[in-house]
Amino acid sequence: MPMHVNVSLDSGWMAEHILFEGNDYSIGRADTSDVLINHPQISRAHATLSANDDNIWCLKDTSSAGCFHQGKRVKSLPITDLQTLRLGPVSCQFRHLNHHQLTALDNQNIWRRQQTMQLSKQFTQCESSTALLESARQCLMQTLGCERAALILVDQNKNLQQCLGYQAWMAEHSFSGSKTIIRRCIDEQRALAIGNIQHQPSLASQRSIVRNNIQAALCVPIKSDSQIIGVLYADNTQGRQFFTETDVKFVESFANILSLRLLFQSIEHNISLACNH
Predict the structure, then answer these.
(1) Tell me, what's the pLDDT at 76?
(2) Contact yes or no for 243/195 (Cβ under 8 A)
(3) H-helix or E-strand spanning residue 41
(4) What percent of the chain has pLDDT over 90?
(5) Backbone dihedral angles phi then psi of residue 55, each to the nearest 5 degrees
(6) Rg of the chain's alpha carbons, rounded to an integer?
(7) Residue 251 CA: distances (Å) to CA of 21, 113, 265
(8) What is the structure's pLDDT at 77?
(9) Could you give the CA distance from residue 185 to residue 199 in angstroms, rounded to a whole number?
(10) Is the distance from CB of 190 to CB of 162 less than 8 angstroms?
(11) Tens digit of each residue's pLDDT (9 = 90 or more) over 229-245
């Protein structure tokens, strides 16, 4: 049975790896590692992972920093069903995949690529900014499987300019997403995905996160001529407590398409104003 490995990255999201029986896999900081974890406290050869003849996966510690299960260091551990381990300071999730789950992952990735190709045409058909914002929200929710999503426009002073008001959580005066994460995304001008927020001291005390029980959030900037004109925001309050590297790459592609559409829409608006005068 294949093994699905998710590794927490410093960037805030999870890197995904799918491993198959029949090989010994190396986990570590070395560039040649099958599962690369680029962290200074991870050994170059931190652990090995393999399945025996009975298809039982086993992790073996080959490091100085250690591998930990439920707070206790382990030298060798069978991986059963779904387990979260810490390799040094890095959290890693191990999950068995049956044939149906593996097929579902493949189909999801194929579907996402098709979605990306269709988005440009779909957004071109939006006749107003409101229609574009709503279409973007629906596409994010369907593709990421997240509970809440929004396209939020940003003005030249980096203020949140317009959120969709079709749902109560998006209203300007009662926005219940994480403005802290949105501000960080804008200030750092990069995609930001945060998982297990309730266990991160720097974020867990934020009022919106506490009040709305936000477990994971993803924010990706939308740029035009190196200037941020908006962000794509998504979060979960009950379900999955992380976003993956695949999620981030998809939303970044999504943001590039939206950037072009918003630019064209702005040009069309200016031309319309000029014609009316």
Answers:
(1) 93
(2) yes
(3) none
(4) 18
(5) 65, 35
(6) 21
(7) 32, 11, 20
(8) 93
(9) 20
(10) no
(11) 888 898 888 867 778 88
- Per DSSP, helices labelled H in 94-160 are 99-124, 129-144
- From 172, 197, 148, select the one nearest 8 (Cα to Cα): 197
Residue bearing tokens 């929004």: 150
Helix count (H) and strand count (E) of the chain?
6, 16
Residue in this structure with the two tokens 């030249």, named with its chain if needed: 156
The C-alpha atoms of residue 256 and residue 101 are separated, in whole angstroms, by 30
Angle CA(105)–CA(259)–CA(246) in degrees, nearest 5?
20
Cα torsion angle, 196, 172, 180, 112, sign: positive
pTM over 0.85: no
Q: Is 1 helix (H, G, I), strand (E, B) or coil?
A: coil
- pLDDT tens digits, residue range 56-67? 899 999 999 999
Containing 198, the helix (H) or strand (E) segment is none
pLDDT at position 175 over 70: yes
